[in-house]
Write a structure and sequence with these properties.
The chain has about 280 residues and is an all-alpha fold. It has helices spanning about 5-10, 20-30, 50-60, 65-75, 80-95, 100-110, 115-130, 135-145, 150-160, 165-180, 185-195, 200-215, 215-230, 235-245, 250-265, 270-279. It is elongated and about 65 Å long.
């Protein structure tokens, strides 16, 4: 849902999270792993069998840039980043205006920690095709990770204005609204993300935090439970569920959920702090 400029101007400003306990959890919810065009490639497509099949296609037609782009995506999904780069480079050499390959290659550079080269590739992708939503979302993720929140917001906004059906644009813009304390808009964005990707855990976890910040504990609890149901390895959702139990005075269930969060992510400080409080 796109909100008007007037609505944004009248939005909540500087809304502090309702409890100090929430601050660490809300920040943690803003940390997501790099995702981009490769996220749309099914994990099975990164299998050795699929890569072998794609290699046969390339051997039959070594001048096909599309084949290199698809195999590069498969290599990326399997974690073979150098092989992925090689294929994206070949795809771009064969088709210099191949904006999808630029965007895909940018994501690989992000995984490898080369943020400047990734930014140059995203810039090139949107220069070639100003309507390519995936590149705006990928670049927005890069900006957000670098702490350039306004630039990230602008890119998510652009993707949404292009009528993207990619839930990440709404989810990640929602995270920015949440960070700014604009929880009404955050909830709207998370809800849209859920409608576009109902099997994704992250929007439920994000929306739950904003519900909790606005005092809607029951809806928050329902969202954290759904996030866990969709992804039992979501440490943040377990910790957030534990926080609700803690607020309700149920220290036993809170401790159990905090322990599960720590089991999944031993370095997750909000869970460790929470367990110390209820133990």
């Amino acid at each position: 849902m796109i909100v008007s400029t007037a609505e944004r101007r009248t939005a909540m400003r500087g809304f502090a999270l309702t409890a100090a306990l929430l601050s660490g959890l809300a920040l943690a919810a803003c940390q997501t792993t790099p995702v981009g065009q490769l996220a749309n490639i099914d994990k099975a497509q990164g299998s050795s069998e699929n890569i072998s099949s794609l290699s046969s296609v390339i051997n039959s037609n070594p001048r096909d840039p599309e084949a290199y782009n698809v195999r590069g995506s498969a290599y990326g999904r399997s974690g073979q980043y150098q092989a992925a780069l090689k294929d994206f480079n070949t795809a771009i050499q064969l088709k210099p205006d191949f904006y999808q390959a630029y965007s895909n290659r940018a994501l690989i550079y992000r995984f490898l920690g080369d943020q400047q080269t990734a930014l140059a590739d995203y810039n090139r992708a949107v220069q070639i095709n100003p309507s390519y939503d995936a590149a705006y979302i990928g670049r927005g993720n890069l900006y957000r990770k670098a702490g350039q929140t306004q630039l990230a917001f602008n890119d998510y906004q652009k993707a949404i204005q292009l009528d993207t059906t990619d839930a990440r644009a709404y989810n990640n813009r929602g995270l920015i609204y949440q960070q700014q304390g604009q929880h009404k808009f955050a909830i709207e964005d998370f809800s849209t993300a859920i409608s576009l990707a109902p099997d994704a855990s992250e929007p439920y976890n994000g929306r739950g935090l904003s519900y909790l910040a606005t005092g809607d504990e029951q809806n928050a609890f329902s969202d954290f439970n759904m996030a866990i149901k969709l992804d039992k390895k979501n440490a943040e959702a377990w910790a957030n569920q534990a926080l609700v139990y803690e607020r309700r005075g149920d220290k036993q269930r809170a401790a159990k959920s905090y322990r599960e969060a720590i089991h999944l992510n031993p370095n997750y400080q909000p869970a460790k702090d929470g367990l110390a409080r209820v133990s």
